[in-house]
Amino acid sequence: MDFRLAPDAEAFRDALRAHLQDVLTPEVEERIYRSGVAHDDDFAKGLVEKGLFAPGWPSEYGGRSSGAWEDQVLKEELMRADAPVYLSETTRMVASIIREVGTPVMRDRILAGAMNGDITIALGFTEPECGSDVAAATTKAVRDGDDWVINGSKMFTTNGHIADYVFLLARTSPEKPKHQGLTMFLVPLDVDGFEAQAVWTLSGERTNITFYSDVRISDEWRIGDVDAGWQVLGLSLQDEHASGWGPHIARLLHHAEQWAQTTRAPDGSPPINKDDVRRRLARVAMENEVSMLLQHRCVWMTEEGQIPVAEGPMSKVFSTESLARAAQDIVEMVGPDAVRSYFEPTAPEQGRFEHLMRFSLGTTIYAGTSEVQRTIIAQRGLGLPR
């Protein structure tokens, strides 16, 4: 495996870094932090205008027809910069599914707008009583002529209060086994009967609990066959399970190194002179390196036409648990000052340590808990029984 970037990918990375440096101003950062909403229309459309939104997509959709490595560069740089891109990421993910299994009418209606920043799509999988068992969904979609009537609720529909559509998993055949009676829909969120209520997470992010009360949509909004929703959903879960969170570790390490080099003890010496500080920084650096290698292996496999069925969860579970360990380690290293928040002028590194500590805990839950990831690794990677 050769993980060195090709010259085109390096040029793409440099252009992306320069753009992020220009647009992610302190004012933008504060607005995102205060709102808890990881999306900004102007930022998303700025990526589109610079050709930085979806490099792997065909040029007719505004992409560069590049390979998986430029897509990986995009993910890494946006994550490292803590850019407000979560709604853009879910939009790209669902657009990829529509491109693969959507009807021609839906592709014509959605893809161009999704790729130019005019259409946004949130995810509607988890339910209040189901947790990580997505297939246990009880939100119902009942056929009524050419329409479907949807009733139920979804939890953690992040950005559901501002998105144009939600990619919704609903039960269409209650009498069938739970994995076989599900269907996927793309639900316009301007319909009657939809409501989003704010839920605030430990990291300060706004997510939502959403309600569907006799929401009526036509059958043209169905994605895939009736009762084949689990297969459609699998396309998105595979992408989510192969996520890597190493760039957040790299961001934490950057701020920790900066603190260690610029802070001064009463005797005038920097913390970096202490053995314990260097040992902690080295440990974080090693786990960051492993996290990035695991993620790059998934990209390499994709380029080789392989599916990282177990390797993706390995990347996800290791990188998120490493981030949580690293955040705790750095907070202990910095001491009580590390828990000063973004809004306190005396906070080291503008409160990055305190926020990353809170943020890191949720990453072990996003896109499937660590327990779910280990189950996939055991069953599909190692062939162990249920």
UniProtKB/TrEMBL annotation:
Q: Name one GO molecular function term.
A: flavin adenine dinucleotide binding
**InterPro entries per UniProt:** Acyl-CoA_Oxase/DH_mid-dom, Acyl-CoA_Oxase/DH_mid-dom_sf, AcylCo_DH-like_C, AcylCo_DH/oxidase_C, AcylCoA_DH/ox_N, AcylCoA_DH/ox_N_sf, AcylCoA_DH/oxidase_NM_dom_sf, Mycobact_Acyl-CoA_DH
Listed A to Z, the keywords are: FAD, Flavoprotein, Oxidoreductase
Annotated Acyl-CoA dehydrogenase/oxidase N-terminal domain residues: 7-117
Query: Which residue intervals define the domain Acyl-CoA oxidase/dehydrogenase middle in the entry?
Result: 122-209
Keyword RNA-binding in record: no
- Chain ranges passing through the membrane: none
| A Pfam family that the UniProt record links to this protein | Acyl-CoA_dh_1
Which coenzyme or cofactor does it need? FAD
Instruction: Give Gene Ontology CC terms.
Output: plasma membrane
Q: Which domain of life is it from?
A: Bacteria
Q: Where is the Acyl-CoA dehydrogenase/oxidase C-terminal domain?
A: 241-381
Similarity comment: Belongs to the acyl-CoA dehydrogenase family.
Tell me which PANTHER family the record gives: ACYL-COA DEHYDROGENASE, ACYL-COA DEHYDROGENASE FADE29
Indicate what this protein is called per its UniProt record: Acyl-CoA dehydrogenase
UniProt organism field: Mycobacterium gallinarum
